[in-house]
Each structure stands twice: as structure tokens, then as C-alpha cells.
Amino acid sequence: MKMTFRWFGENDDSVTLDQIRQIPGVTGVVGFLSDIPAGELWPLDRIMEYKKNIEAHGLELEVIESVNVHEDIKLGLPSRDKYIENYKETIKNLSKAGVKVICYNFMPVFDWLRTDLAMKLPDGSEAMDYDDAKLKGMDPVKLVEDTTKNSNGFTLPGWEPERLKELKRVVELYKDVDEEKLFENYKYFLEGIIPTCEKYDVKMAVHPDDPAWGIFGLPRIVHSKENLDRIVKLVDSPYNGLCLCSGALGCERKNNIPEIIRHFGAMGRIHFGHVRNIKFVGERHFHEVSHLSSDGDFDMFEIMKAYHDIGFEGYIRPDHGRMLWGEKARPGYGLYDRALGVAYLNGLWEALNKTSK
């Protein structure tokens, strides 16, 4: 298992590479060129410059999150072929920089979604909250405005302004796309890129829908064991794999995370793990907490044990953290709580290593 830490770049992150380097056990960053719009080619010189800076701080760059998929690909529009070609060229360029895994998602319009980015917890820290009942009373445009306003001045991954500037028009286009059509469009995308992945030895890791159900009438398909089984078979290649996010999948109570890890781990299809804890408040209502099992509703020991049992040698990162100790950062992506998460997860891993001998 390789412990990593997500980083958005020198000019788009409150956390520095020097700080990440000081977190015990972290070997690399999960990178992202946040200024490149979805569908555009990632230039090799930009990638190499980014990599050089990271390596100068004693860290690796072997995982990218995300190379965003253009909406025209998900919609199945004629223009998708142009964007798929750009994606293939980006995969090639990233391989030249030593990148081994690309995390991405296939969520229409919205990436991960919350109804409150800074809910105050009893201990005074702030965490992100999702309440489906509140969402049903929201207009999508108003939600985007509120989310942007409350992001502490940072862009949010998947909520980049250029992706959402034509929100009403794009949402309207999805009225002709149901789950089956989205599966068709997804297969077309995978058939286009996976041969390039195989050629250049870069594995794709799809992130589950977050939350794990449809929103605003938009189709979502990456949210259950059954659908993940179908996805890995769309193009049956070890390069067509998963980013197993405990929080995104686990917010749907029927998804047994340790069982899902063992199922897909046995296939060798988990290329990246996001480990996060949440607390259920009600039906389709949850908020994020620390990584400590007792703070939420997930047994983090059992989750890490599942990874250990499958002999996981891939990449893991602590997922969304709280804001604590007065920190002002991109919601979910501050330094302190995620660093605490690293220490906790590494402690579990060390115990599992020592007790399994």
C-alpha cells in the first residue's frame, strides 16, 4: 500500500508540498492541473514542470485525479470523438511522466455534491453535510452559486466554472439520456481509451458517484456492486479499474464496503482507494467526520483489513477532512484533519502487518 495525499498545485492549494513531505508515511501526491478545462489536452511540458516541482520536494507523482471527462462524451454527441482523442493523447503524455493511475468519474454535470460545505460539529470543527431533502428544494443554478460562494476562494474539483457556465442547457440535454444510454456512452469512451492505456501502461480508476444515487433527474450509474461489476466488463481489461471510495459508495447503506473491496480486489481491479468516514443522520442524510471509526458509522479497521487481506499494493489517500484549528482551506481538503487521517490509517496498517505474521 502506498499512502498519498491530494494536492492541487502551487497556486490553487492552501497546503504546501513542504507540509505534505512532513506527514509520516506519505510517499507521493495525487496531482491535478486544475486550470486545464475538461476535454482539453494536457501538454507534456506542463506535466513535466509539475512533476519536477513535486519530485524536488521528495515526493512521487504516480496518480492523477482527475482528467475530467468532457460532457459531450457522456452525452454521446458527435463531438465526443475529438475529446476522446485529446484524452488518449493526455494518457500518453502522463505515461511519459511516470503516471501509473488516472482517477476520473462519469457523473453527468455535477461531480461530488453537498448541501452544506461547513456544518458546525459539536467539537467546533466544520464538516461537509449532504441532506437529500434540502437538495430536492434547490434549483441547480442556485446550488452552484451557493457552493462557489462557500468554497473559501478555491475552485472545487468537478465544480470548475467553465464546466458549469452552461448548466441549464446541459441539464436539458440529459433529458434524452437514461441509465442505459449512459452505459452505452461509457462503453464507447472506454473502448476508445483502454487500448491506449494498455499500450502506455496507465490504469484507469473510475470514482463512484457521490452521493450514490441520481440527483436533479440526472442519470447516475457508478454506485453499486452490481453496476461496478457491469462497468469492469464493458471493456474486460485490467486497465479498466476502480477507485474504491468508501464515503461515496458507503453513503448508500446497502453497499458493504469491505465486501466490495474483497470482491473487486480478487479481480485485481482496484487501482486506487479513497478512505473516508461518515455519520448517518437520517435517510439519505449524512455528514463527514474524522477518520476515527467511533466518530462515524464505518468500521475503518474492517475497511483497512479488507485491503490488507487482498494484498493491496496500490495507492490510498485519506479522503475529505474536517476544517479544524482555525484552518481556512478548500472544503474537504485542508491539511490538519487529512494528516491525522494518514496517521490513523497507517497505524491500522502497521497493526494489520504485525498481527498477520
From TrEMBL:
Pfam families: UxuA. It comes from the Bacteria. The keyword Lyase applies. Pathway: Carbohydrate metabolism; pentose and glucuronate interconversion. Keywords: Iron, Lyase, Manganese. InterPro entries: Man_deHydtase, Xyl_isomerase-like_sf. It catalyses: D-mannonate = 2-dehydro-3-deoxy-D-gluconate + H2O. Belongs to the mannonate dehydratase family. Catalyzes the dehydration of D-mannonate. This is Mannonate dehydratase. It comes from Clostridium neuense.
